[in-house]
Amino acid sequence: MALISQLFGDEIYDPFLTMVNKCPVLNAPTDWKETPEAHVFVSDLPGLKKEEVKVEVDDGRVLNISGERNVEKDDKNDKWHRVERCRGKFHRSFRLPENAKTDEVKASMENGVLVVTVPKQEVKKPEKKVVEIEEIKG
Fold first, then answer.
1. Could you tell me whether strands 62-69 and 106-110 are parallel, antiparallel, or unpaired per DSSP bridges?
2. In what order do the strands lie in the sheet with 113-119?
3. Where are the alpha helices (DSSP H) in the chain?
4. What predicted TM-score, i.e. pTM, was given to this entire model?
5. What is the fold of 2-71+85-119?
6. CA–CA dist 41, 54 (Å, integer)
7. What is the pLDDT of residues 20-43, one digit of tens each?
8. In Å, what is the CA distance from 64 to each residue of 23, 32, 59?
């Protein structure tokens, strides 16, 4: 292990994990911010079109963002010298809080940036009931 650290630093070198961690399509880096009105998710999906991305909310209040960058069609006369751009499927899931209006989610995409907006609703706090204490005379 010490030799690996000397050669590659403290990070263990695994070509597959290195590719996944550095590949925006497979990793789909996503920011989540909360505004007074909504939860906003912003995902970087360079090179993808909206038709290649799917946004869903399941019954358990989980926001799912998924998609795939397909391999380009090959011409039989083509000779590849290097393939470095990521291809493949990705899937990200986020558990939405109770105040999310899951039936009003909106999504838009421009220049490879997906923006998903989940409006918020006021969550009714449980009411406190004061229980009167009786005095027992005995």
1. unpaired
2. 30-34, 38-44, 113-119, 106-110
3. 2-8, 15-22, 24-27
4. 0.70
5. Immunoglobulin-like (2.60.40)
6. 14
7. 455 655 678 999 999 999 999 999
8. 19, 13, 11
